[in-house]
Amino acid sequence: MKIAIASAIVLGHSASTLAWVAPTPRGPTSVSATRAASTTSSTALRMASDEFCVAVLGDLHIDPRKMEDYETGRAQWLPVLGEASEAHGNVALCSLGDLGESKNCDHNPANPSELFAGTTVCHETAADFLGSFGVPYEVIGGNHDLEGIDEFSTDAENLELFLRAHEKPSPNFVREIADKTLLVGLSSTVFRDAKYTSHEVTIDKEQCEWFEQTLKDHPADEGWKIFVFTHAPPNGSGLRVLQENHVVNGCCWLNHSNDAECRKFIELVREHRCIKGWFSGHFHLGQDYQDSITFPTIDPKDGPYPNRGSCVFVQTSVMRSGSSRDGRQQSRLIRGNKDGFEICTVDHKDGGKIRLDATITYRDDTNEVGVYAHGDIADSDEKFFRVYQPSAGDELHPPDEGYIGDRWTEDGTLLVVDEITQDTKAWWNMACGRVLGMLNGMLIEYDPSTLAPLGLIVGADELVGKKIAVIDSGLEECMIDDGEGNAGMEGAECEGMEAREQAVLLIDEADGQVTVVQPNEDGSYWRKIVRNKMIRMKEARRIKAAKAFAEDQLELGEEAKVVPSWGPYMSTSGTAKKTGVAGLTTKAENM
């Protein structure tokens, strides 16, 4: 067992989950002999060193039938970690979660359909693997780590197993890896109870409050440096993302579906310059792209100030070939001291070769300089190209060429584009402050503060070939002028109305149809149409039962056509790329 947490603060996790403790910082030797057989020198000697070394492993998605890549990866890591242990001893390993494969892995003969991810055998297998590197390890929960839905009926039960298997006192962790240098981790704790997609990475309220207090207690002006580890990155990180997967389904950023919670993390980064690095996985993309690492500031000649505090954001790839989206098999290595730190790649496809990716040098406690060691290293037919993201510019730079928010007519109309294609790029601000734009034939909502993509509004199936117009839609009698050109409101009928109400229209001139794109009740526009996995599983069972009934009881045979009842929910898939309703906003399908 890990050393007991001294003077731990017990907090109520929530009514539906188990209680948890807020950990006090663990030092480099606060780990059992079984997890760190090589930690033999004294704590005092180690803490006298300002050097440290951290191995960062991305989404493991362990399949117990296919352990070759994991064994190879560990063998490549052992000499690196062993050398650091001998040199200074300030060494640890951090796993970014998603420990098991989200499919049946022949692990439970009694239930051949059970998913491996989130089960007892999954977490015990992962604990054995992570504990075999000869150094202390920390682990955080990803969006698949509570997916043991056949074994556990609640998230609380599944979370308790996760904590027990990895000997964690709480979902979060803090470890003092070197003098005034903390490793801090936050776990996703929601799966079955997710309001929307179960694959959103959700950091609960208690962890968020603990995290903010930890930052306040370890300020930059006292010399503290904090490295954060979460499964998904925060909104505003600037990392390369999968537009047609994580973005459109609302599971790209931490706490993605809640505007305020989603934005809170980057606000903390801007406020607390003690945060020097933030490592995440989730996307299964490699580390050869330059935007797999983003710096807190850039040379003004290269573009607008990104406003990311003092934090370097870092994407981490995967170890197993079967989990990679782009063929890369890589991990991250952090090597640091009092003067700064290096971010390296351990390339598991190239014999464990270590490549320097970026060097960050501290100017003082609140400022640093980052230098990339290389540009993009990509194949000529690279599929995962850099995704366009709007840029609002700054005092030295105008907005990017996609900005069309300066084209409003005198009557308050914005005709976005004559005819939308897959290549159309345009964005604008609504009067309410929301930001909308087009990419890859889709209408997307962006965060007003960071301009990071939030989610899909209208799919390409419904949008390509049409026009978009934004018009004023408020009651004319509500609008008054104070004589200085400032609009105001009057009259009881105007209560609750915005100073300038607008409507977004899709115009199909071919058939004369105009579709009004209504916002959600909270004022956002992006469609939260991917439901919790538990709900989708029930829907799939209903469809299966209806199919059997139609074939057997109604004697319609295999030709029976069974469809769900309403537009966006026509699929039980966890991926939503279409928003059109057949026969209404898109052409009717032949039944």
How would the blueprint of this fold be written?
Elements lengths: L8 E3 L8 E3 L20 H5 L4 E6 L10 H20 L3 E5 L24 H11 L6 E3 L15 H11 L7 E6 L2 E5 L19 H13 L7 E5 L13 H5 L11 H13 L3 E6 L12 E2 L17 E4 L14 E8 L2 E8 L5 E10 L5 E5 L41 E4 L8 E4 L5 E5 L2 E5 L6 E6 L1 H4 L3 E6 L6 E3 L5 E3 L12 E7 L4 E5 L15 H20 L39
Parallel strand pairs: 3-4, 4-5, 7-8, 8-9, 9-11
Antiparallel strand pairs: 1-2, 3-12, 6-7, 10-11, 12-13, 13-14, 14-15, 16-21, 17-18, 18-19, 19-20, 21-24, 22-23, 24-25
Structural description of this entry:
With 591 residues, the chain is of the alpha+beta class. Helix content is 17%, strand content 21%. It has 9 helices and 25 strands. It has a 7-stranded mixed beta sheet with strand order 5-4-3-12-13-14-15, with helices on one face. A 6-stranded mixed beta sheet has the order 6-7-8-9-11-10, with no helix packed on it. A 4-stranded antiparallel beta sheet has the order 16-21-24-25, with no helix packed on it. The longest helix is centred in the N-terminal third of the chain and has 20 residues, at 68-87. The N and C termini lie far apart (60 Å).
Quick tags:
single chain, 591 residues, alpha+beta, six-stranded mixed beta sheet, disordered N terminus
